[in-house]
TrEMBL record:
GO terms for molecular function: DNA binding; DNA-binding transcription factor activity. GO terms for cellular component: cytosol. Residues 136-209 form the HTH crp-type domain. It holds the Pfam family HTH_Crp_2. Keywords: DNA-binding, Transcription, Transcription regulation. This is HTH crp-type domain-containing protein. Residues 1-97 form the Cyclic nucleotide-binding domain.
Length: 228
């Protein structure tokens, strides 16, 4: 969790710049395009993904409000290779890269530490996902995605967990690195076992511990704040 003072500093900094609105499905940044600045997410969620040579999408990260991106391009000066797409109607602020680096990150050690922490959390989560992509079967991969989404976006309601963002079968498939058909089959198996079910567009988790067992993932009780 970001320290309140640090979070407020980041919010105050970006508040000086113009707000932009995007509709669900709009692309903020295209792969291999030069970003027009650094985006601070005020409202909604943004998906970062890559495209394979045959046009398949692989979701790398989902940004929550108070996140800012693309920091690989900004800090490492590496050309951008990723797409950033609005998962819902969103509100962002876009600031010049040089302003963010010189007036915010380099100017405040606490902000720099918080950004480093975000990057490390993201790297740890990405390494876990790579491990699953290389070693786990389809069922374990889908189960692990549901577990991670529950940790990231889940809200406890009585004895259940509800993932507060609607995820389609295709979006879960993009996270698991599988086809939609295979993902749908595995989700049906979990539904038949009464581990999960859909309530409207939301996923409801009946038994997170059992789902963790099926995913073979090591569950940390702490929520995932930024990336996984």
């Amino acid at each position: 969790m970001v320290e309140p003072n640090t979070s407020q500093k980041i919010e105050d900094f970006f508040s000086k710049y113009k707000k932009l609105d995007y509709k669900k499905g709009d692309t903020l940044i295209h792969g291999e395009d030069e970003p027009q600045g650094i985006y601070y997410l005020v409202k909604g969620n943004v998906r970062m993904f890559s495209l394979t040579a045959d046009g398949k999408e692989f979701t790398l990260n989902i940004f929550k409000p108070n996140s800012y991106f693309p920091m690989i391009w900004a800090i490492a000066d590496i050309p951008n290779a990723y797409y950033y797409e609005a998962m819902s109607d969103i509100e962002v602020v876009r600031a010049p890269k040089n302003d963010v680096l010189t007036k915010l990150i380099k100017n405040d050690q606490k902000v720099l530490f918080e950004l480093t922490k975000r990057i490390m959390v993201g790297m740890g989560g990405l390494l876990t996902r790579i491990q699953y992509l290389l070693t786990a079967d389809a069922h374990q991969r889908v189960a692990s995605v549901i577990v991670m989404l529950t940790k990231r976006f889940g809200e406890k309601k009585k004895d259940k967990m509800i993932i507060e963002i609607p995820f389609t079968h295709q979006e879960i498939a993009n996270l698991a690195g599988l086809t939609r058909e295979t993902t749908s089959l595995e989700l049906k198996k979990m539904t038949d076992k009464k581990l999960v079910y859909r309530k409207g567009k939301m996923w409801v988790i009946n038994d997170l511990n059992k789902l963790v067992e099926e995913s073979l993932i090591i569950l940390d009780e702490k929520p995932l704040p930024y990336t996984f």
